[in-house]
Design goal:
The complex is a heterodimer of chains A (303) and B (281).
Chain A (H helix, E strand, L loop, with lengths): L11 H35 L2 E2 L8 E2 L3 H7 L2 H32 L6 H13 L2 H11 L6 H8 L14 H26 L3 H9 L4 H29 L3 H6 L11 H10 L4 H33 L1
Antiparallel strand pairs in A: 1-2
Helix pairs in contact in A: 1-12, 2-12, 3-7, 3-9, 4-7, 7-9, 9-12, 11-12
Chain B lengths: L1 H38 L4 H4 L14 H9 L2 H32 L5 H11 L4 H15 L5 H5 L6 H12 L4 H8 L4 H12 L1 H17 L2 H6 L8 H11 L4 H35 L2
Helix pairs in contact in B: 3-14, 4-8, 4-11, 9-10, 11-14, 13-14
Classes of the chains: A mainly alpha (303), B mainly alpha (281).
């Protein structure tokens, strides 16, 4: 970056450069200010107010929204569901993604077909995907109960039984998203130099010890990145919950974004919903910081 | 000799096992799609057969006709396409311009602005969703196409992705053009853009699919049926035809098939987009 003395904008050339830069940035800046920057501050401001959106006056109520939120048992329940969903999907998701990525990194017939097959669930509309799974989960005619029935497991009312519904959403969530992580793991695996494995082969290392001592450690930055990113996106789950269960039965699958959506757009408690949004933001930001911190230690290790 | 043979035997069986596992997993992964497709052409009595019957004895294509009569999927489609295409083209333009400014122009405050941009990528859209809705409300844009399109016309992620790509293009290519008296904009349009086709394709596919599949935003900002996009229309369709699985699956096929076709042709770019976005961490 240029370091000019005093006020750099005094020179005509610098001013012209600034105008050119701003001209290129103008469309982006307009949209950004209106729909990202202003909203970020405005929702923070709103979280200290009581406002139903349609009345003209917003009344300042200090931390009341936050106090109400922390003393609302429903908030804690919703947070718990979100955490259960996250810790249910992320490990399974990563396990499948890594397994598939490792196999696809070997000599396998029909690699291209396989990669497409595993990636297909990622790209389709979550709404359509959730509809397919509603059909699969149908208690009387569904495929899943048919297959579990073959194994002698009694029929489960997947989406209407409060103790099974979250599990059903987790299974679908894993199916829908593990393809992304498969691609990321594949990229990570391809970045490991072949020479490491060749050297291990000369030493007569077993497949397992190569995996344990080369693949896993070399992959750990990728793995950590994938873990944090998957946690963040699992925390944001909404579409599939909306279509599969709408938060039911008995609120057993109501997750944070769904709760926020209800508060804001069903009950129009904009201030309260904004407070929920900010707590949500704080949780995700903490996850992000964890990632940044980890990256930094990794970089220090290398340099 | 014997041990050599047995280790080769072991290797072959390991290979076979690996194939069996991975293909089994692939079949489980695509089975829901096949099940959707087959259900969508089944007659009612075969849907209600238990144990489930995979292959229908008769193909009932009229399920599609019935689904399209029950809800105006054709109209939802046009809405989704119009929104997704406009957002994609818009984003390619705004992101290219912004990315060029960040990659090549030098001006006061550029780096600070760039870091603000990077920072906003970490803000989940749920935080900006409520005030964005209010902005649209104040502008009188709620329940219009503008509400579906305008907020999507810029992207920090896209700007970042293109900036990283632009930085890999050697500067020498542009210098000759400057000597010939080309403007900044002309250089971007004539030199940088043609060289960035792969990155633009990745961003384009990515944006198109995200916009086409977006559910929450249309759910919040539209009410009228005339503005419904495919995912929203499908979700509302579900509420009305709870267990008409033939119609629901016909609707789902219509919602997924075009996206699948686009994906099969542009897979390379899409996957590259994911890997590039993975680098952003």
């Amino acid at each position: 970056m240029k370091q000019s003395a005093n006020n750099p904008l005094n020179s005509k050339k610098e001013r012209k450069n600034l105008y050119t830069g701003l001209a290129f940035l103008a469309p982006t800046l307009v949209i950004f200010t209106t729909f990202i920057l202003f909203p970020v501050f405005f929702s923070f401001f709103l979280s200290f107010h009581k406002w139903n959106m349609f009345s003209a006056n917003k009344s300042f109520i200090g931390l009341s929204n936050y106090i109400k939120l922390f003393s609302d048992p429903e908030f804690w329940r919703v947070l718990k569901h979100t955490v259960i969903y996250t810790f249910g999907t992320v490990p399974l998701n990563m396990l499948f993604a890594l397994l598939v990525a490792i196999v696809l990194n070997q000599k396998i017939a029909g690699k291209k077909f396989l990669r497409t097959a595993f990636f297909t669930p990622v790209i389709i509309s979550p709404v359509a995907a959730a509809l397919i799974w509603r059909w699969i989960y149908d208690p009387n005619l569904g495929l899943l109960n048919y297959f579990t029935g073959l194994l002698g497991i009694p029929a489960i009312n997947w989406l209407n039984d409060p103790s099974a519904a979250m599990f059903a959403i987790i299974i679908m969530g894993v199916w829908k998203t593990f393809g992304i992580n498969m691609v990321l793991f594949s990229a990570g695996l391809q970045a490991i130099p072949d020479s490491y494995y060749e050297a291990a082969d000369i030493d007569g290392a077993s497949t397992w010890s190569k995996f344990r001592h080369i693949t896993l450690p070399m992959l750990s930055p990728t793995t950590f990145f994938i873990m944090i990113m998957s946690m963040i996106s699992s925390f944001q789950v909404f579409d599939i919950v909306y279509v599969l269960t709408s938060g039911g039965p008995l609120g057993s699958t109501k997750v944070m974004v769904f709760y926020m959506y209800e508060k804001a757009f069903k009950f129009f408690e904009m201030g309260y919903a904004s407070a929920v949004a900010y707590i949500f933001f704080a949780i995700l930001a903490a996850l992000c910081l964890l990632q940044v911190k980890y990256m930094r230690t990794k970089i220090y290790e290398v340099t | 000799m014997i041990s050599n043979n047995s280790s080769r035997y072991f290797n072959i069986s390991k290979k076979v096992l690996m194939h069996v596992i991975i293909y089994a997993l692939a079949i489980v992964t695509v089975a829901p799609f096949i099940w959707m497709l087959l259900t969508s052409v089944k007659g009612m009595e075969e849907i209600f057969t238990y144990p489930p019957k995979w292959i229908p004895s008769e193909i009932h294509l009229e399920n599609y006709k019935e689904a399209f009569q029950a809800a105006p999927f054709g109209h939802y489609y046009l809405n989704s396409l119009a929104v997704a295409i406009t957002v994609t083209i818009g984003q390619l333009i705004t992101c290219s311009l912004a990315a060029y400014a960040f990659a090549r122009l030098e001006f006061w405050g550029r780096d600070v602005l760039f870091y603000i941009f990077l920072g906003t990528m970490m803000i989940p859209y749920q935080v900006t969703m409520i005030p964005s809705f209010m902005v649209l409300h104040w502008l009188g844009w709620v329940d219009t196409y503008k509400a579906l399109i305008v907020p999507g016309l810029a992207s920090a992620f896209g700007t970042f992705l293109l900036r990283q790509f632009f930085l890999t293009i050697p500067k020498e290519l542009e210098e000759a053009a400057y000597i010939d008296g080309c403007s900044r904009f002309k250089v971007l349009w004539r030199i940088i853009i043609p060289l960035s086709k792969p990155a633009l394709a990745s961003l384009g596919i990515f944006t198109f699919m995200a916009a086409f599949n977006n559910f929450m935003w249309p759910l919040i900002v539209t009410n009228s049926e005339a503005l419904r996009t495919v995912p929203l229309g499908l979700a509302i369709f579900r509420d009305r035809y709870l267990t008409d699985w033939d119609l629901l699956m016909a609707g789902s096929v219509t919602a997924t098939l075009p996206i699948l076709i686009v994906f099969f042709f542009a897979q390379k770019y899409f996957i590259k987009g994911i890997t590039l976005s993975g680098i952003k961490g």
